[in-house]
Amino acid sequence: MAEHAPREITQRELRNESGEIMRSVERGESFTITRNGTPIGRLIPLRRRTFVPRAEAMAAFATAPVLDPDKLRSDLDTAIDQDPFGRDW
Description:
Blueprint lengths: L6 E4 H6 L1 H9 L4 E5 L2 E6 L10 H8 L7 H13 L8
Parallel strand pairs: 1-2
Antiparallel strand pairs: 2-3
């Protein structure tokens, strides 16, 4: 699903049509607010996406280190077995 460029609205439109604009934000629309023709801010929805495209997820993890599950398990078991205060009982 392609994202759309935010719609530009003036400060006056934001003030006069705030109810409709907020409903549009709830539906997922974004806005760039302008004052005297100059962009001054963005109004974006905070709702989290439930679907992340595969290519985007792969790109996010492309630089992540490779984990060895056996070493991870061993390291966790060792950490759990240690006294958090370094005492030798």
